[in-house]
Amino acid sequence: MLTLTITEQTATDAPTEGGPAEESPAEEGPGTLLALPAEAQALLFREAHTAGAFTDEPVGEDQIRAVYDLIKYAPTGMNTQPLRVALIRSPQARERLVRHMAPGNQDKTAKAPLVALLTADREFHEHLPVLAPHAPNAKDMFSDPQRRETWATFNGALQLGYFIVGVRAAGLAAGPMTGFDATGLESEFFPGGNQKVIAVVNIGHPAEGAFRPRAPRLEFEQVVSAL
């Protein structure tokens, strides 16, 4: 559990030997304009990496509950919340999952302390009478299966991003993957056809050498424009 302590540094009125102390220039940069403390910025973004290897330390049910309790507030269109998470805990389920992973993802998925199979619920509209009380006819808007799948995929992927950040907020590392046989996984775990697999995420405490060197990121000017 990460505890963030923020202390304020105040100047003293007492004179110091040789005259008043010089003030240190404050660090400048985009991070100083954010409400999130620097430690939290580092934990969630700046020093966070996709993990490829983990220690044997287990990931408890209480930790995943805490992650979900945080990320359930992620925004989704019309509050549809289509993301579903299947925790692969038993050896039998792990074996069934690993055989549908791409060859390069099989070994690390087999060894991770916990694996989460993330899907988008194609039948998310059944919950809309409760989730969208502001739109009484919301369920009827998604009578077309193709529209539901498009909506579920987009909003489920949005929630996936928050899920990864939530795992980091718990002091854990995440290894999200899309290298797998999606059709095979859906047939294996969701034969009813109501779930669309969007990602497999390995979760745990990172082992030594778990991270690749940071890859380049696009600069602000390459991404953001003003119209």
Give me the secondary-structure category. alpha+beta
Shape: globular
- Radius of gyration equals 22 Å
Largest sheet, strands/sense/barrel: 4 strands, antiparallel
Percent of residues in helices? 25-40%
> Quick check: average pLDDT?
91
* Low-pLDDT windows of residues: 1-17
Give a count of the beta strands, DSSP E runs of length 2 or more.
4
Order of helices and strands: HHEHHEHHEHEH
- Strand percent estimate: 5-15%
First-last Cα distance: 43 Å
- Strand order, sheet with most strands: 1-2-4-3
* Number of discrete helical segments: 8
Outline:
The chain is 34% helix and 13% strand.
Folded structure, characterized:
- With 227 residues, the chain is of the alpha+beta class.
- It is 34% helix and 13% strand.
- The chain is built from eight helices and four strands; from the N terminus they run H-H-E-H-H-E-H-H-E-H-E-H.
- It has a four-stranded antiparallel beta sheet.
- Helix 1 (38-46) crosses helix 6 (145-169) and helix 2 crosses helix 6.
- The two termini are 43 Å apart.
- Mean pLDDT is 91; it is low at 1-17.
